[in-house]
Amino acid sequence: MEGTTMVDQPRECKIYTETESVSMHNDNGSFQDEPRKILQMRALLEKHDPTSKEYDDLTIRRFLRARDLDIDKACAMFLKYLKWRKTFTPEGSICVSEVQNEIAQNKMFMQGSDKNGRPITVVFGGRHFCNKKGGLEEFKRFVVFGLDKLCSRIPQGQEKFVVIGDLQGWGYTCTDIRGYLAALSILQDYYPERLGKLFIVHVPYVFMTVWKMVYPFIDEKTKKKIVFVENKQLKSTLMKDIDENQIPEIYGGNLKLVPIQDS
């Protein structure tokens, strides 16, 4: 079944010049107009919300790219993000004490980087169950907790991360459509252009019923980053993007996984 089918914390504020902005991260010739649009977008943002000054040009550029360089749409997206961030993480981050029930499921790990330097996280979908104690709100906090941890490990010169979604042991008792859609919304709305690739491994046939329900909510940019991996080709597929010494031991590599809260 092989085939191709979250939110930035304020960083140290650095305003890149037009030359630096293009030379550092110009992935495509079609983005040559980005520096001018970044300046225009910044000016608009600061009129509506002065706190936008805390964010660097690279953050603004991610929102621009997420909206195909449409300044108005990107501004609306960024302002929504700023409002969400202030209300969802008023202290600036999510503490471990706020997601204890989710952490107890032992389902998210982080270790290693791919050949492009993008940090890797492994998420075990078969260990996720609806959190009856903390509910959907705690799960959303856990998603933000994990994504912020992941983004904090992205090295300078890189902007994305890689996810291995492992569905070993997944069954209908793990089904959580509300949780899946909430996580997807957080990733797409508040962490734009952060996902580099999502490998989905150990996929049981029954999962595809749920996948068909979630798929329509995935935007086109994200769909292009999703790869279903056959069990027999798991290690060889991962090695196209990840060196063996950076692949987790459970997939034939050399690294031990580190729980997200300990990373």
TrEMBL record:
Q: Where is the CRAL-TRIO domain?
A: 96-259
Q: Which InterPro entries match?
A: CRAL-TRIO_dom (IPR001251), CRAL-TRIO_dom_sf (IPR036865), CRAL/TRIO_N_dom (IPR011074), CRAL/TRIO_N_dom_sf (IPR036273)
Instruction: Spell out the Gene3D superfamilies in the cross-references.
Output: CRAL-TRIO lipid binding domain
Pfam families linked: CRAL_TRIO (PF00650), CRAL_TRIO_N (PF03765)
Q: What's the superkingdom here?
A: Eukaryota
Identify the CDD domains for this entry.
SEC14
| Protein name in UniProt | CRAL-TRIO domain-containing protein
Organism lineage reads as: Eukaryota, Viridiplantae, Streptophyta, Embryophyta, Tracheophyta
